[in-house]
UniProtKB/TrEMBL annotation:
InterPro entries hit by this protein: Bact_response_regulator, CheY-like_superfamily, GAF, GAF-like_dom_sf, HATPase_C_sf, Sig_transdc_resp-reg_receiver
Organism the protein comes from: Stigmatella ashevillensis
Pfam family for this entry, one: GAF
Residue positions where 4-aspartylphosphate is found in the record: 55
Protein name listed in UniProt: Response regulator
Keywords linked to the UniProt accession: Kinase, Phosphoprotein, Transferase
Domain Response regulatory per the UniProt entry, residue ranges: 6-120
Highest taxon in the source lineage: Bacteria
Amino acid sequence: MSTRASVLVIDDEPGIRDMLSFELSQEGFDVETAENGMAAVETLRRRKFDLAITDLKMPGMDGVATVEALRALDPDIEVIVATGYASVETAVACMKHGAYDYIQKPYDVAELKLLLERARQKSHLQSVVALYEASRALMTTLKHTDLVQLVVTLAQRVLRADDIGLILWRGEPGDFHIHRLVHDVLPSETLLLALAGRVTQKEGALKLAAHEIQPLASPSENRIYSSALAYPLVARDRALGALVALRRGNSLEFAASELQKGTVFASQLAISLDNARLYDELAQKVSELVRTREQLVHAEKMGLAGQLAGAVAHEVNNPLSFVQANLSAMNDYSLMVNGMWLASKEAAHYLYGQNRPESQAFADMLLTPAGTQGRTESLIREIDEVVTDTLDGVKRIAELVSGFARLAEPQTSASPEPVDVNDIVQECLETLPEESGPDAWEVHFHPTSCLALIAREDLKFALLHMMTFLRAPTGGQARQACTLVLQTGTSEGQPWLEILNRDLLLTEEERRRIFDPRVELDSGGRTMRLNIALALTYQMLRRNDAEVSTMLEQEQGVLFRVLFKPPTRWM
């Protein structure tokens, strides 16, 4: 045997105890004796044993009760029951209560030695299996958040500890995070950091007794713990933290074999933590690559849209200007016609007052050019409404053409300056139509100025179009019941703005393509307007180095977030 196995011999006959102690010591075992079950329990409280041999018939606590008590105190101990009776039913009952095997008296030392070696091999195999299963669980858990939750549970199971503390360094001196078996104050931060500091300096595992723990513990936990194991967690020559396992006063002290077993577990844990770190970094890199790819695809779309927009704006602008001028003239003509109609009615009223047949005939001709007076007045009103509506439509087309032209502008055309985002938001709220004005918004301004480095007109243009879209995403009337939440603020020196629309429900695909300059469908199947407004919003903000993103808020609609460039680059 590579190391001496410790054996506790329990028998009420001194001669048998002495004989077994002598014979087993000669065979290389570390032997200690107890005269009955109660004495064996007390002896086991003082030190750990690998194996135990107990007589079945003893006064007071018999062999069955002794097996149960020993296994309850130390589940790792393997117990062999000795019986001097021909019937072994009671010995088998002991095995059902946790005994490894039984042997008949009188003892055959060679047979007993073989039985003890097999029992120790079983105990060692169980320990190896437990470590293997724990290592497999650690190695197959890649996410850091999942790993730290798993570690404390596995450590408690492998080391049979009452309390576990996992201390992880975050990179900066004094920056750490503590994970416990349960969310409790024990073990205290004071004790855990003290033990972590000691093993980090020693660069090796430590086993501490109660008198060594007490000076390190907080007053509230003094004399609670009887034993502790502490391990440094190091991977790739980088200190990751420490693992601490503790047993309370009513539990056995940790043995040297458990310190070695914990060293293997801590080594596997350090590798797993480092793998989780690398996995998280890889996932972040992949996420960044995906975002970069999406930005490149969007930039390509915007470039093509810009070329098309420039061509459309150029081709449409001249005829549109001619049509708009003619409609303005028609509007003037409509006003003149309306004036002439008023004059005709006044002349007819005068002629009716002459009381002459020919005068009344002329008056009737003046009031009924369209057949009847009512039909004539209706026709004049319709002409005025048609001209007004057509002029409004042309103005909207002109705005769209202006948007196309702006979309085709080069990325470098903006002239950034320090601008208070709060002021621009207030201007936009005052500019919006009455039905979508300030009362429709829940606004939370940053208490001080929210300064951003951006072209003022670009910011106003972008926010106005974004706010208009969010009030009526389908292009129709703004919904009176819809309240949008707008917030401004700064995080670590970087100004930001968020707008939350709780009623706008989109799929992930719709959210991802919301800034594309194209016609889209909302989640209800209704056709959304040509999304040039949001495309322009994105264009204006991106060329000012602002980061624009959208997020689907669970059961709360869509959140638009803009991160602005600060006036002085925050470091």
